[in-house]
Amino acid sequence: MEFKEQQAIYLQIAEYVCEKILLENWKPDEKILSVRELAVELEVNPNTAMRAYEFLQNREIIYNKRGIGFFVASDANKKVSTFRKQQFLESELPVFLKNMQILNISIQEIERYYTKFLNNKKS
Amino acid sequence: MIEINNLAFSYKKKKQLFNHLNMQLSEGRIHGLLGKNGAGKTTLLKLISGLLFPNDGNIKTLGYVPSKRKPSMLQDIYFLFEEFTLPDFSIQKFKEVYSGFYPNFNENQFAEYLSEFEIHDNEKLNSLSYGQKKKVLIAFGIATNTRLLIMDEPTNGLDIPSKSQFRKIMAGAVDENKCVIISTHQVRDLDNLIDSITILNQQDIILSEPIEKITEKLCFKVLSHNEIEDKILFSENNLRGNWAVAENYKNEDSKLDIEMLFNACFSNKKRIQELFNHNNIS
Fold it and tell me: Which pTM does this prediction carry?
């Protein structure tokens, strides 16, 4: 896994797990990698992996069965979408908007591109 | 797990290396010990493990006074040196001779790590390259399962795939009872593995904190052209943009950049110490 330069590692790990859930590599109510297995796979400190799992647990995307391990929540997909949307609005959109301002791009122009993008997808 | 109070140490009478040095390192973490060349990183590690004796002050390692060199302490410490000479043994014989000092040594683990590093245990130590010897010692050291594992520049001399193997092995080897101290200049090799940082400066410690504490107090980010950011502790223009370490008064979540932190500690030592000391009081 390539880590991005700016975002906290535990959040990047949380996103990695979300990705697995959205792509249905990890399915609802299925057991997922243990903290240690995840740490080894991503070459990170187990404490950081644990922090990512705690973060996802607080958002009810995964849950912990004592002594057994972590599982994907049954409605994880919906929760992940909500979380990702919030992430997008908070961290990616501001950069996008700032670039629009610097490059002097109007919202109408963006709208035209967006419409075109949607049409391309349909065809 | 390690407690140092008021430590003083010097090799020569006139040149004091440490003075009033205080430090605590807890178990369950991988501590990164950083400092400029000649700051005394290796010396500090030798003091912790009883290889050198303090002139003044107290050290407690695993509950023992290290200078007493009690066998019950020594069997629970493994020290991987940066420079070493090895006996003219095969790996197999090395294991037979040295594993006896460590009651928790695990043969299967040792074999597993060696195979991950692609080293056969019938080889002679002296026929191996520096990097391969180092991998043998890393594999052996982790397999001793000591409570304290000290590694001085472990990734020096390791080839590219071995660095990744090393991180995987380390990530799988630490647990809540173990304390790992890694002294290194190769911070990029160990970026996401280290979760507590200690920065050593002439005579004392500038900073010794877990990573989540550091990113709570400090924010690491790229500043855009027109952005005016106050409370900057260090900034640097490079291809990645204008990178800065600032006080995290807006509570932003950022990724710790060890090199930037290191530079901030040296360019703005006083403010860094104020920020983290204040925290200790509250």
Answer: 0.88
